[in-house]
Amino acid sequence: MNIASGMDQVLAQLKATSDLAAGGNRSSVVAPAVSQADFGQLLKSAVDQVNTVQQTASQLSQEFVRGNQDVELHDVMISLQKANVSFQSMIQVRNRLVTAYQEIMNIQV
């Protein structure tokens, strides 16, 4: 599972929960694209993938600094940008999760 599909599934679940909390009907909550995967597992998988991308970028930059002739500067820069984009995406997902949690907690029962 790649990061984008995992995050899309998490966001779809959050939207469905938000719709249900706002008084939407139950049939709109069922998301056919979402499998029976555990929410925690999806989130852990996404965080692990971001961590892997960051570690790869760090290793490439260290190899370049050491003077390894097999590592090109453009490869280092691309891997660092991938790590940055994936981290920023994870921050946005975290922000949306916090916002969804706050909305759920503000619902009057």
Automatic annotation (TrEMBL):
What gene is this protein translated from?
Answer: fliE
Keyword Glycosyltransferase in annotation: no
Quick one: a GO biological-process term for this protein? Answer: bacterial-type flagellum-dependent cell motility
Question: Could you tell me which NCBIfam families the record lists for this protein?
Answer: fliE
Q: Which UniProt keywords apply?
A: Bacterial flagellum, Cell projection, Cilium, Flagellum
Please state where this protein is localized.
Bacterial flagellum basal body
Q: Which source organism does the UniProt entry give?
A: Nitrosomonas eutropha
Q: Would you tell me the protein name for this molecule? A: Flagellar hook-basal body complex protein FliE
| Gene Ontology CC terms | bacterial-type flagellum basal body
Pfam families documented for this protein: FliE (PF02049)
InterPro entries attached to this UniProt entry = FliE (IPR001624)
Give the UniProt family note.
Belongs to the FliE family.
Q: Name one GO molecular function term.
A: structural molecule activity
